[in-house]
Amino acid sequence: MSHQTVIVLDFGGQYNQLIARRVRECGVYCEVKPYTTPLAELRAMEPIGIIFTGGPGSVYEDGSPTVDRSIFTWGVPILGICYGCQLMAHLLGGRVTAAQRDSAREYGKTETHFDTRCRLFRGLPETGTTWMSHGDYMEQVPEGFALAARSAACPNVAVADEARGFYGVQFHPEVNHTRHGTDMIRNFLYEACHAAGDWTMEDYKRTAVAALRDKIGGGRVLLALSGGVDSSVAAALLAEAVGEQLTCVFVDHGLMRKNEGDEVEAAFSKWALNFVRVNAGARFLTKLAGVTEPERKRKIIGEEFVRVFEEEAKKVGAVDYLAQGTIYPDVIESGAGDAAVIKSHHNVGGLPDCVEFKEIVEPLRLLFKDEVRQLGRELGLPEYLVMRQPFPGPGLAIRIIGEVTKEKLDMLREADAIFREELAKAGEDKHLSQFFAALTNIRSVGVMGDGRTYDYAVALRAVTTDDFMTADWARIPYDLLDRVSTRVVNEVRGINRVLLDITSKPPATIEWE
Ligand code: XMP
Known about the structure:
Layout: E1 5-10, H1 16-25, E2 29-34, H2 39-44, E3 49-52, E4 78-81, H3 83-91, E5 95-98, E6 106-114, E7 127-134, E8 136-140, E9 146-151, E10 158-161, E11 166-169, H4 181-192, H5 201-216, E12 221-225, H6 229-242, E13 246-252, H7 260-267, E14 274-279, H8 281-288, H9 294-316, E15 321-323, H10 328-336, E16 359-361, H11 369-378, H12 383-386, H13 406-425, E17 434-448, E18 451-464, E19 472-473, H14 478-491, E20 495-500
Helix pairs in contact: 5-6, 5-11, 6-11, 8-9, 13-14
The chain binds xanthosine-5'-monophosphate.
Residues 298, 390, 392-394, 434, 468, 505, 509-511 line the site of xanthosine-5'-monophosphate (XMP).
């Protein structure tokens, strides 16, 4: 694919994915590469710019992450962030030491003054907040570098050698706490690297379709479609590329939300592909009968999923390619970079063992989530599929406390649909990262008309989060909650009480199980 590339050279910082996302948001393609990548490999990528990321080390310690000095002779602009800035200073003859005074260490939001003559800060306000997190200090700036920003504690918050296109910032422009941080990254890309801004999903679609046709030829492809954004967009892209050579197996485990299965099926009717929907709800319910322990539920569902998928795959016969909706954060988090592995990812059910295939194709491997959504739109998938919130593989089973039964599933589906519908009607859903109803195992006394009820309590859960590792409970307007509550107890038989979950993560998790 012919587009300009920026390399994000990963020294193990915690925000490295965010740097890459910001670069892509600016319309420039980039890849995160570990600092241990052979220099020849990096050079062969013909980067128009390089960004050194932050990292936990100190440049003056033995064995701390580094890069061969010759990278500075390529004539390619480099932006060093935090550790990356100090490393650049260190390698180019400056001096970096541990900050002696506490006041020279900076953590958190810091008022910063910028020299707006510097390309990095061109067109931006002269003062602003930056997000700092460094205990080291550039005691001496390398030759050729000028000071480009300062704070009360530090005279060289940013340094620049404009002639060579080298820039260093001790703060993190990639995080939201730094005002105009993305503008600084954009300035680096467009003012220093002279980027053309040639990374768009329209282009990506065209080149990816061509590349998939090229690779797959007349081969047959099998994809497990879960209905989530990633597998749906992967399916749409493959459908566009190879149409009837693709078979999508959609295992409907009966634990989906209201109408979800039909919506997924409808979305793919526009392509001439082989779409197999397996209605396996009864099978899953039988396996789940009497099971109350959350981890056992997950395990049973995961195993049954693989079993059903394998049975269907066998009917399809030997295939050449097994397609997966792996996306770039999965690739980076699984240890391609140097940052600590946060969790091991697996798609619904994991990889089937006894399905014969020659190779795996992962057409979204290089895309971030927002890019995947954009690509989905380019491919003509409906907005409700493209913007679908994360939905756990085990589905509603982990939103029903205690045993999962058909009656409880029906109740929860209705209550959940009402909650989602009212949020959407009020436009509140746009501000939320995830929202759903969970059915508790509590029954309580109520009164309806003249009669006593003894029914279930449902809990409403809505959170905002950037990364799903931490989350805050969402402040939903009372009148909206009132409408949901009234509708749920009136419209859903078996529920007579509505609760609101006002716990953040941590200490709670987003899901109830
Ligand atoms: P928790 O509940 O751990 O959830 O705060 C964090 C995010 O992960 C989703 N989640 C899952 N996704 N399979 C999935 O594919 C699972 O088993 C699973 N469990 C939780 C959850 O919906 C939230 O977005």
